[in-house]
Amino acid sequence: MARAPATFKQADVTRAVRGAVAAGVEVAHIEISARTGNIVISTPRVPSALVAPYDVWKVESNAR
What we know:
alpha+beta, 33% helix
């Protein structure tokens, strides 16, 4: 009995991580769905005390 084709490859994960790092995102955790091959990259949480109120406002109001 033949195996089913892979839903993701190591190269896919490598590209995703390199892209996140190139964008300046710190990678804390990677989750890969075995069925669909979805790759989810999680970042470390920043304590709310370190986030300025202005930055929160910018994110919430989609300001540029």
